[in-house]
Amino acid sequence: MIDKIKSLAQGDNLPRFVITVFLLLLFVIAAILKQPIGVLLGDSLVRYGMNGILVLAMVPAIQAGTGPNFGLPIGIVGGLLGMLISMEFVPQTMFMHQWVGLIVAIIGAIFFGAVFGWLYGQLLNRVKGSEMVIATYTAFSFVALMCIAWLVLPFKNRAMIWPIGKGLKNTITMENTYGGLLNDFLSFKLVENHATGSHMFLFNKTGQYITDTYGIESAIKFQIPTGMILFFLLFCYLVYLFINSRTGVAMRAVGDNPKFAESSGINVNRSRLLGVILSTVLGAIGIIIYSQGFGYMQLYNAPQTMAFGAVAAILIGGASAQKAKISHVLIGAFLFNSLLVVSLPVANELVPAGGLSDVFRVITTYGVILYALAKVGGKTNA
Amino acid sequence: MRNFSLKRFFIDNIVTIIFLTLTIAGILIAQQPIHILVNDIVRRFARNTFLVLALIIPVLAGMGLNFGIVVGAMAAQAAVIFVADMGWNGLFGLSMAILISIPISIILGWMIGKLLNKTRGLEMITSLLLSLFAQGVWLLIYLALMGRFIPIRTKELLIPGGIGIRNTVNLGDGMGTGIKYSLANLSQMPFFLAMTVFLGILSLIYLVRYLRSKQIKGQRDKWLLIPLAVSLLGTLIMFLGHSTMLYPASILRLNEVDIPMVTYGLIILVGLFVNWLINTKLGQDFRSVGQSQSIAAVSGINVDRTRIIAMITSTVMAAMGHIFLLENLGVLNTYGSHVSIGLYSVAALLVGGATVNRATVGQAFLGVLLFHTLFYIAPFAGKVLLNDAQNGEYFRNIVAYGAIGLSLVLYAWKQANHAHNKAMRPEGDDAAPATIDLSADTE
Amino acid sequence: MNVLEMKDISKDYFGNRVLKNVNLSVKPGEIHALLGENGAGKSTLMNILFGMSVIQTTGGFEGEVSINGQPTNIVSPHQAMDEGIGMVHQEFMLIPGFTISENVKLNRELTKHNLVSAVTRNPRMETIDIARNAKDARAALDKLDIGIDEYTRVSGLPVGYMQFVEIAREIDKTGLKVLVFDEPTAVLTESEALNLMDAMKKLANEGIGILFITHRLDEVIYCADRVTILRDGEWVATKETDDTNVVELAELMVGRKVEILPKDKKVAEDADIIMSISDLHVNMPGETVKGVDLEIRKGEILGIGGLAGQGKIGIANGIMGLYPTTGSITYKGKTLKLNDTKSTLDSGIAFVSEDRRGIGLLLDSSIEDNIAITSMQVKGQFLKKAGPFTLRDKEAIREHANQMIEEFDIRCLGPNQFSKRLSGGNQQKVCLARAVTLAPDLLLVSEPTRGIDIGAKKLVLDNLIKLNEEGMTIIMTSSELAELRSISDRIVIVNEGKVEGILHPEDSDADFGLMMAGTYNKVRGGAK
Predict the structure, then answer these.
(1) Does residue B443 sit within a domain?
(2) Inter-chain contact C106–B288, Cβ cutoff 8 Å?
């Protein structure tokens, strides 16, 4: 029994253990500070659904042996392209234009994700052993390159481009398209009676909060984003099916031990390529779900550091740089996103200084990744 | 002895060649007056070179491109903020900032070294993520703790409300208050005179190296005659510019550019220091460890300790370099000044022709010159080409990230090809050494 | 007086005795050859001499080491160096990016004071004295009559020269008394080897004691003064080379009792050829095959033996297409596609790798997955339809794994235990089960008993015999001659990447010894 508890807090599981304990602690503090726990939980679920597929995108990459996909922004750019195309060509007068828009965006995302993923996978197959740093800088360069592309691509839709000057806007609202579509699909609201003296946090459906310092005694509604969660779970199931197929088993063998795979007649490079393409496509679809939950698409430099959060989340779930399972995604995405949601009001309450929530995010994200790296590189060759 | 192959030269220096082409094209397109261009490059060179030199030792020690110099820069920021808080001015303030930054950066460098010894083989991604992680810690201290748990005397430094340091900290007016220009103002010379001096010194260095080459290798290295001749010619050209009116007026306006002699002298000294360090026993150990950790260990070199020393050296140099950057900039961006240091310094070094496992002082100088020229010229060129300066901003990012991405890919590619070629070689020499040398005839 | 004396040396690793009362002495100015098969205990003996940590951390050793008559307890390689013992490694300890001079003086660089070092008194701050280092390197190279420029980078040198750089480094160390050459000629051409041995003689003439580890018998006769032979961790003999010959040495090196397991059926000499190999070249690092011609008869167990590094391992890996291969292989009358593992597997050939943990297993996967995965990939077994998807069939895999666990007597906690938690012997059984699951007609097994205990060894060999009796043709590659002789029908001995000859299990020890040492044809005159 004690051994079992110990094993929960060791090795790859340590971040999960630490974060869980910390999260519980935050919830306790939040309760003491009379924060609306229900709202925080509801908001955690929203962020969970929004980020889930981006975290899921790590699974094929890690399983195929290319390590956590630090090149996720490449997929994200593919998803953005899909969304832009959908917005440009799906008129809002169309029947069920929201669903059509979403589906067109996803189809576009799959196309661009596959093309970019193929190119990017070719690159990674040629730089075996230094995938992580190269993935990072390839993604950075690609995002930088796309900044120019956003300025010059010939999109015409007035909702997307700057009224004066040229190029696409930095953030494009999706209010009139499929923003919040999945969040609201089959969603239901819970009401929490909540009376506090001082601070109060209200959340809109996009996960942003509005501080109400006047202390209105009020009933706060919060929403369970059923559609988005279902969509996320559907994708988890699809990936689960894939990794249990013949091809998926081969891919995992390549990630585990490429030499073994080779001696079993498996084409190592093709499996790795497949893993990378899949990861990139999931990244592309992931950003669509993220954006529709957030209500905006963010172009230019926004995708640049998005990989790190996803990597941190899956590591928190118990994955390592070489091993990842769907359960790691389910657990990690929840823990990480809840942490970000709950730490925000607590930190603001304890240390009223601006931007502190970012501190939590940054320290957790990079701290967890560094911990995972220290475990991979532990093999001394001296 | 050296067989020169144009193709090989081109492949080995592809990054530098691309950037040289881009820079020249940029200059031609942007059509900026030459004295304004030079003035800007002179400032940028003064600010950034020290930091780039800080990258050389870790490269030689096999730890790759040290994105962790951001952490060293944080030590510098901490020291400078402290000095600003104490109200210390001028050279005294600058010296105090350096003194304070040294112990901080030694401790931080030691910690980074420890971490990198645990992440062997993944040094670059680790140091990159470490710099991002450190930014979190920095935010925590300077945003949440300063003024609340850590007392600050100068209230102007704080955000109204009393907690956290302001976004920008003014480092003086350049006339005596604060540390701004405390070094630059010491001695300034007009462009042509300064360049005559520098190129003269350079000629002298090459002359000495040429004369000493006989002592070391038994015969004089005639290849040194080329840089010697070039630098002598340069000296002459500059001297003519200084003493006569032979050149067109637009070029003579270069004399309006003032060169901060002490700053430049310092940069030269640091360059010489790095070269000296490489030639010490410690430097040889860095190189041995960098080439093969296992062989170095078998030969009795304490690999882990040597790597930590390399990291401390780099971090301390980065801290000093960043202090001089701030001195020259005059403004400290509390939450941003240090962030981009890693990116731009690494990019500059690579543009100069360095690789993941090879870097020289000369490459650092060349790299800073090319990279920052391009950096400066990009928005102007963008404006001419696309009628939009914004493009230039983005172009800067492409330049920086692209330089790093390209270099890393080329390096990994070469390594993979080398291993592949070895495996495909029809027969024999099975026991050829496992470590790969990519620089066989590029020196 | 002996410059080096090792007396009554015994050593065991975790109860497994690898050295038993071994004696070895080297006189100043003598070339002393140390001869033995792989696993005879030579490397353990050298690890003891050099105070390697692997000895210290496993409980030290028994016996006494004396240098110049002084009993000495060497506990680190550094101390060995201080005592004047040097080694020329088989795998070069050279930094390719450095010059010869830098390599010769590695971590022993001569330095001179400068301003900083004078003030700080820190020797690491002293400047490297390039000229003096080069002079030392020159002197050492001159001693070996090597004319190459000391400023040349090692990366550009031919292999033969690298050896000399290593030697130069050793003789540059002051007070060198004993120099150990660890199979130095293995990677050299014949003329390079001659050069090297001449250099050894020259060094011996200067009074240095030389310990020459080798497999090559004619080299022993050519340059050694005395020779000590080890077998199975025991001292067998020490002889003056003038009093012996290659045939005797071969016999001493190999000779041991062989128990030949009874086989019910003998394969007729004229049985059908199931596979014929011609001019096979395999570029497997360390085990290069350089032109092998071989015919395998249907239903036989063909043993492939030979010393480490000679290429025997490369043959099976080449057939499987795991390393770049040229030549031609005909299998069951059809040409086998080379360098294509998938098609080899498809044609009904299975492989159990010599590198069990590196290639043979998915260590972080369950036993059942390990057993099933290759068949799933190659033959599409263990799959089931689930709507539009085809998924792995957990039940079928479980059932098959349970059956295999019983059949091969795999001792485990159950089919879902991770394979890395199994003992070596049981891991080997999993590998075998995986290969058998493919139901091959031809099974390639490499080093099936390496690193597993005696009980498991017997089980594995019995299993091979059983499979063979059921009609499977088996090619077994092994470093253990006794094991090959116990179950094979014929034994191919590979030397320098080529077939030296084919023997029967009953043939004499001397024949096996000579073939393994590559001197059979010279001594016995022509092939069998």
Answers:
(1) no
(2) yes
CATH fold label, C261-348+441-528: Rossmann fold (3.40.50)
Higher-confidence residue: C430 or A206?
C430
**Count of structural domains within chain A:** 1
Banded pLDDT at A189 (limits 50, 70, 90) = low
Q: Is a pLDDT exceeding 60 seen at residue A34?
A: yes
Mean pLDDT confidence for A121-147: 90
CB contact under 8 A, B295 and C95: yes
Q: Which chains would you list as touching C if contact means 3+ CB atom pairs under 8 Å? A: A, B
Q: Under a CB-based contact definition with an 8 Å cutoff, are residues B75 and B369 in contact?
A: no
Nearest to B184 by CA among B266, B114, B243, B246: B266
CATH class, C1-84+175-244 region: alpha beta
Task: Give the SS3 label for residue C265.
Answer: coil
Distances (CA, A) of C215 to B318, B353, C18, C37, C220: 55, 48, 19, 7, 9
**A133 → closest Cβ in B125, B400, B415:** B125
Distance CA B132, CA B67 (A): 10
Is the pLDDT score of A106 beyond 90? yes
Domain that holds residue A84: 2-373
Residues C86-116 pLDDT 10s: 888 777 788 988 999 999 998 888 888 888 8
Q: For the residues of A71-124, what is the DSSP string, one character each?
A: THHHHHHHHHHHHHHHHHHS-TTSTTHHHHHHHHHHHHHHHHHHHHHHHHHHHH
Question: Nearest CA of chain A to the CA of C398: how many Å?
Answer: 15
pLDDT per position as a tens digit, B266-310 = 999 999 999 999 999 999 999 999 998 888 888 888 999 999 999
Name all chains with 3 or more CB-CB pairs below 8 Å to chain A: B, C
CA distance B335 to chain A (A): 11
Note whether residue B429 is domain-resident.
no
Distance to chain B for A45, nearest Cα, Å: 25
Q: Which residue has the tokens 């202090």?
A: B323
Query: Is B61 part of any domain?
Result: yes
- Domain residue limits, chain C: 1-84+175-244, 95-173, 261-348+441-528, 358-439
Question: Which member of C95, C286, C288 has the closest CB to residue B291?
Answer: C95
> Which 3-state string (H, E, C) describes A224-246?
ECHHHHHHHHHHHHHHHHHHCCH
Mutate to test the interface with B, among C128, C161, C313 (most CBs of B within 10 A): C128
A103 to chain B, minimum CA–CA distance in Å?
32
Q: Which pLDDT value is given to residue B426? A: 39
Please judge whether B282 and C125 are an interchain contact, meaning their C-beta atoms are less than 8 angstroms apart.
yes
Does the pLDDT at position B439 exceed 70?
Answer: no
Q: C98 vs B281: CB contact, 8 Å cut-off?
A: no
Q: What is the mean pLDDT of chain B?
A: 84
Lowest mean pLDDT across B241-245, C211-215, C290-294, C416-420? B241-245
Confidence of residue B325 (pLDDT cuts 50, 70, 90): very high
Whether A264 sits inside 8 A of C345 (CB atoms) is yes
Q: Is the ipTM of this complex over 0.90?
A: no
Nearest CA-CA distance, residue C326 and chain A, Å: 18
Which residue does chain C place closest to B273, by CA atoms? C116
pLDDT of residue B425: 44
Query: Which residues in chain C have their CB less than 8 angstroms from residue B291's CB?
Result: 95-98
Three-class DSSP category at C11: strand
pLDDT of residue A214: 38
C261-348+441-528 shares the fold of C1-84+175-244: yes
- Beta carbons within 8 Å of B192's beta carbon, 6+ residues apart: B238, B239, B241, B242, B254, B255
* CB–CB contact B293 A359 (8 Å): no
Which among B132, B144, B293 is the nearest to A351, CB-wise?
Answer: B144
Q: Looking at beta carbons, which residues of chain C come within 8 Å of B426? A: 281, 283, 326
pLDDT for residue A1? 60
CATH number of the CATH domain containing A218: 1.10.3470
